[in-house]
Amino acid sequence: MFFRRIPSISTKDLNEKLNEKPLIIDVRSPNEFKSKHIKGAKNVPLETIHSYHPKQKAYVICASGMRSKQASKILDKNGYDVVNVKGGMHKWNGPTKGGK
Question: What pTM value is reported for the model?
């Protein structure tokens, strides 16, 4: 259990789940989030992830996959069901929204 692997998903697979309205946590900065994000995603910057308590399985995304991996490890350690999104917004080809 010491080196528990965090499950991960591709951006393509996440895009296919959008109709299920998954909880998507975007851990980028508020400015990055405002410029372009997945519609319905919740912005919880990495530095505040310790105090976030998801109520359901969460898909964690950032720009490239590094911050989301860190955030996923923190949430997993705190007992939450999380999945890291590989490649982040750089690999995202699905619908996006600008602004809040």
Answer: 0.94
